[in-house]
Design brief:
The chain is elongated, with a radius of gyration of 23 Å. The protein contains seven helices and eight strands, in the order αββββββααβαααβα. Helix 3 runs antiparallel to helix 4. It is α+β, with helices and mostly antiparallel strands. The protein has one domain.
Length: about 260
């Protein structure tokens, strides 16, 4: 049963991801604040971009030429441009999950059922926290666990979603089993007929959700394009400044890297 609910919650990400081809990895920790962008290898800051124009490497500020400072500024701007896209993708994913939950459980248990209500409340709270995290003006962190600046969309986020699923299963297993039993009775006890009913139910859910995924797919493609730009500007940044050329924050497959570099 946990797998069933997990599938509903993960449908939002999967349906959009299936239509994107963004093959990249974040190889470093990233901390973004109003006046700086810090890139980490484990707990050590490799370099810091201050005020989107000055560069510190291993704690030492570098004297930059005009061309180098332009590369730093372009790189910083591309990183900051990615933040609202990450926020939007997270919020759209939660909205899509809420839609999937409503359609699935309302269809199985009826409208205003306890399972949908609980899951929607929990996910709405998550959505509020995502908004608060990205709108507070405080530093945000990606791919880096830190007590003072947690990676909100990292392990903490995954653990919270898992807890929501587990709690919902524990509190609603009786209602779900009753609904399943009711469907078996409607099928006259014929398990093949029951399976056919469930398959039809699943197809109906898929049809309804497909109409809701286009915006999520577009968001995913836009985020991919933005991250490709970050990678391309990082390459220019590394080529311009030898002190950082060996460190790769974003890894992208060679085909996408070539396309992104042609665009800027």
């Amino acid at each position: 049963m946990k797998t069933f609910i997990a599938s509903v919650l993960m449908f939002a990400a999967g349906s959009a991801a299936a239509h994107t081809s963004c093959d990249l990895e974040l190889n470093a920790g990233l901390r973004i604040s109003g006046d700086s962008i810090e890139v980490y290898d484990a707990d050590d800051a490799v370099y810091t971009i201050v005020d989107d124009q000055y560069l510190q490497v291993n704690g030492q500020q570098l004297a930059l030429t005009g061309a180098q400072q332009t590369a730093v500024a372009n790189y910083a701007a591309s990183i900051r441009a990615a933040v609202p896209e990450v926020r939007g993708m997270a919020l759209d994913g939660i909205d899509l999950a809420i839609d999937a939950i409503t359609i699935t459980f309302d269809g199985l248990l009826g409208e205003n059922n306890q399972v949908s209500a609980q899951l929607m409340t929990e996910l709405t709270n998550v959505k509020s926290d995502v908004n608060r995290y990205f709108s507070s003006g405080k530093p945000i962190s990606f791919n880096r666990e830190n007590k003072s600046v947690p990676d909100f969309l990292g392990k903490q986020f995954e653990t919270r979603i898992e807890r929501i699923m587990e709690t919902s299963v524990q509190n609603s297993i009786g209602s779900i089993m009753f609904a399943v039993g009711r469907e078996v009775l409607k099928s006259g006890g014929d398990m093949q007929a029951f399976e056919a009913r469930m398959n039809k139910f699943g197809e109906q859910i898929e049809q309804q959700m497909n109409a809701r995924t286009s915006a999520m797919e577009a968001r995913g493609e836009k985020l991919c394009t933005v991250m490709q730009a970050v990678d391309a500007h990082e390459e220019q940044f590394k080529q311009a400044i030898p002190a950082v050329e060996s460190f790769d924050m974003i890894h992208m497959n060679s085909a996408e890297k070539h396309i992104a570099q042609q665009k800027i």
